[in-house]
Task: inverse folding
């Protein structure tokens, strides 16, 4: 039972990150951005977007949608970044799902990012690795 839970949890996490990447591609394509670098904190998503995915994978449709955007008339680069280096962007992406569709301009940082920005400014954010 635990293995099934872990597998489904990983699939949901993968789908969430993959759908964020797809959402970013769509937004920037609609804004006619000619060159785009997307930083993703999932090495698995970056590998799939660079190397491909088996058509039998349950989330291959998300990858195919991303590939469609890559083939359009613009330059897109997908890069891996560590989650700790991407915490503010990650929090803003989560926050964006609570907003109405459209363009939102912030004149100051949203409260959801305040603590993370302070940690960045103080250099108190850390990356934990297994030894």
Result:
């Amino acid at each position: 039972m635990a293995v099934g839970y872990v597998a489904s949890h990983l699939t949901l996490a993968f789908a969430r990150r993959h759908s964020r990447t797809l959402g970013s591609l769509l937004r920037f394509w609609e804004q006619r951005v000619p060159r785009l670098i997307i930083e993703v904190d999932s090495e698995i998503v970056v590998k799939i977007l660079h190397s491909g995915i088996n058509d039998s994978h349950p989330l291959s449709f998300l990858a195919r949608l991303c590939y469609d955007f890559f083939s359009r008339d613009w330059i897109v680069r997908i890069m891996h970044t560590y989650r700790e280096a991407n915490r503010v962007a990650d929090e803003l992406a989560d926050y964006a799902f609570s907003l109405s569709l459209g363009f939102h301009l912030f004149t100051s940082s949203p409260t959801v990012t305040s603590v993370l920005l302070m940690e960045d400014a103080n250099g108190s954010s850390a990356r934990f690795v297994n030894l």
About this structure: The longest strand covers residues 35-40. Confidence is low (pLDDT under 50) at residues 1-12. Residues 2-30 form the longest helix (29 residues). The beta strands are 35-40, 75-80.
